[in-house]
Amino acid sequence: KDLIVSINAQGQVRIDQSIMSLAELPDNIALMSAKYDKTSPIYIKADKNLKYDDVMFVLKTLKGAGFNKVALETNG
After folding, report:
1. What H or E segment, with its residue span, contains residue 19?
2. Measured between alpha carbons, how far is 55 from 47 in angstroms, rounded to an integer?
3. What does the domain layout of the chain look like in residue ranges?
4. What digits encode the pLDDT tens for the residues 6-59?
5. How far is Cα 45 from Cα 53, in angstroms, rounded to an integer?
6. CB–CB of 35/28 below 8 Å?
7. Secondary structure element (H or E) that encloses residue 48, with its range
8. CATH match for 3-75 among 3.30.420.270, 3.10.129.10, 3.40.50.300, 3.90.245.10
9. Is 55 helix (H, G, I), strand (E, B) or coil?
10. What is the pTM of this model?
11. What does the pLDDT read at residue 15?
C-alpha cells in the first residue's frame, strides 16, 4: 500500500490517520517508520499555497528516515 503524506495550507501534516505539525514531523516519522515498508513509494500531497521550504523540509525528513521513493504531487 502506498503511503500518502498530505500537507495543508496551515502546515498540518497528515499520515494515514495521524495529524501533526511540521515541527512534530521528525519525531513522528522516526516512530512510525518501523511500520512502513521503506521500499514502497510515498506521495507528498502539498497544498499549492504552502511554502516551498516546508515541502522540502517534509521531503528531507522522509528521506532522512530511510524512505527513498518519494514523489511530489500538487492539488489545485
Report:
1. strand 18-21
2. 9
3. 3-75
4. 999 999 999 988 999 999 999 999 888 888 888 889 999 999 999 999 999 999
5. 14
6. no
7. none
8. 3.30.420.270
9. helix
10. 0.88
11. 93
